[in-house]
Amino acid sequence: MKKVFLLAGFASIVLACNTNSNTSSAGQDTLNHAAHNESNSNTQNQNKMNPITATMDKMMHDMHAAKPTGNNDIDFAAMMLEHHKGAVEMSKVVVDKGSNAELKAFAQKVIDDQNKEIGLMHDFISKVEKTASSNSEEFQKALTHSMMAMMNDNTIIYNDIDKDFAAQMIPHHQSAVDMAKAYLEYGHEKSLTTLCENIISSQAKEIDWLKQWLKNKII
């Protein structure tokens, strides 16, 4: 699946992270590639789009819309917050329109768990001091790298809400795990490190569950 919003957002981050002429040229190549993909895949995207993939694309756009503040704690919380919102919206689609009771129960748990964490991150952002982090540039690159799981164009689209939810939530969760690991390397705020440890533990288990569920449905 071609993710136009994702590629455009990724290109803008690549440009922002590079300052010399050679890397700027490479970033321009990335932008040109993204534009080329957009031109050639609009029809394909329209044919493949469904509520799950549409929600995933919107989430990626929203995640990359905000300019980094330079504070690792705020930037992580803001990006993970949008990431969680995407999971909640995808899960709502399954709860409302899905047909598999087991998967609907899974999706409702995602909604409940991640809404609690969204509240925690909102509260944190509203109170934290907005001082710059000395390793912000390195952290931004690590965050960008953590998005790679969701940039996989080989994710199968079934045009079935239940199967598409499982297929898309696997790389979505993997990116959350990778983002959390990046923060543990570059961030030190206790409330966020605890959040990241919980994300890594719980979502790794959910990835395994989703893989097994999907495997059982496509055999």
TrEMBL record:
<keyword id="KW-0732">Signal</keyword>
<feature type="signal peptide">
    <location>
        <begin position="1"/>
        <end position="26"/>
    </location>
</feature>
<protein>
    <submittedName>
        <fullName>DUF305 domain-containing protein</fullName>
    </submittedName>
</protein>
<feature type="region of interest" description="Disordered">
    <location>
        <begin position="27"/>
        <end position="49"/>
    </location>
</feature>
<dbReference type="InterPro" id="IPR005183">
    <property type="entry name" value="DUF305_CopM-like"/>
</dbReference>
<feature type="domain" description="DUF305">
    <location>
        <begin position="73"/>
        <end position="214"/>
    </location>
</feature>
<dbReference type="Pfam" id="PF03713">
    <property type="entry name" value="DUF305"/>
</dbReference>
<dbReference type="InterPro" id="IPR012347">
    <property type="entry name" value="Ferritin-like"/>
</dbReference>
